[in-house]
Each structure stands twice: as C-alpha cells, then as structure tokens.
Specification:
Helix content is 15%, strand content 38%. A hairpin with a 4-residue loop joins strand 11 and strand 12. Strands 3, 4, 5, 6, 9, 10, 11, 12, 13 and 14 form a ten-stranded mixed beta sheet that branches. The radius of gyration is 18 Å and the shape is globular. It is α+β, with helices and mostly antiparallel strands and 213 residues long. The chain has three helices and 14 strands. The longest helix is centred in the first third of the chain and has 13 residues.
Length: 213
Amino acid sequence: MHIIQKQLLDLIATHEDFGSYSLRKMAEMVGAKGKPQTAKYHLQQLEKDGLIQLNLEAGIIKLVKRGYAKASTSPIYSLPVVGSANCGPATIFAEQNVDQYLKISSSMLPRNKSNLYALIADGDSMNMAEVEKGKTIKSGDFVLVDSEYKNYKTGDIVVAVIDNMATIKRFREDKPNNRIILEADSTEKYLPIFIHEGDNFLLSGKVVGIIKS
C-alpha cells in the first residue's frame, strides 16, 4: 500500500469530519502540500480497493474496513503482501500496491491480527535478527508487520521508509545526538543509517513475526 494511502486511512479513522476537509487540506496533512490531486488520486485508489466509501461532492469519506488482515469464519487469514523491503541499504521502492495475499492459519499469527500486513524480505542484513524463538529474517521470508505500532523503543525491528524506499532494520534512539540510528543485525558488516530531524523518513510498523519462505 502506498504510504499516502496508509496515512489517509489513519486520518479517516481518527477524524469523523474528514470528508468536510478540502482536498488541499487533506494533501497538506499527508505531506503533499499544494498537491490536492495527489490526495484525490489516493482516495480514489482506496475506494477502488474497497477500503473506503467515497463521495467527494457530498463530503462523504468513510472507512469500510479498518486494518489489513482479512478475517473470516474459518481459522485461515489472508494477509496482504505489499511488496518487498530491503534488508540492506534502503533501495527497494516502497510505493507498492497489494498484489497478492498470504493465506495462513490464525494460530501462526500474533493475537492482534487486524493491523497486520506482510512484506517479503530482500537481502541478508537482518539474518541474525531473531523475531520469534529460533526464527531469523532471511531473504525471501514473509515478514509480518504491525502497522499501528506507535511506541517504538531501542531494539525494535522496524520497517522504515527513507526517501520513499523501504528497509527492515533494528531501531535505536540516540537522544544525546537528537537522531535515530537504524542498524543491521547480520553475519555480514553493514554501515548503520543515521536519521536526523527533517529527513524524509517515517516508520511503517514493527516486525512482529516471520513466515519462512
């Protein structure tokens, strides 16, 4: 899912009067100031994907279904796979639409399933990162991400989006230097990524599970 679409979903969920806002205001709220057509385009994509009810002329924007995991009456869940995330330098483009679903037994998922999505790990910079007991992140694995995790702390394994590129790294807050450090956890040597205030950066969720490829 495009980062702007995720931001719009969050705003729709938390602002009951979101439909009354102008497209220009919506664009500004998602970091696209001066680009109202960008907001309109992504709202239309969310409507197309069945995630929202949209009638801009009537000022109606409503969430149809919250979260990403599709529950059913069976113990099988369908998790959206939203592309790849690099386990090395941030070189995989993050602007991916859902193009497949991972069907999996609910017993293999964390308790809170409603906000999960999956990424395919690409690279080996996190091949020592143990997310679950005995499970580390290897290239080709499906990485499960909690999209609504907010209280990031040092040691968390996160999906970071840097200049619209996605990467999986270990999060460390460096308060004395007013920066965030994203570190590899690998058998190979990788340089850390330093994030400072004002950088084009966001955290797109915490890694909470692995489905081995």
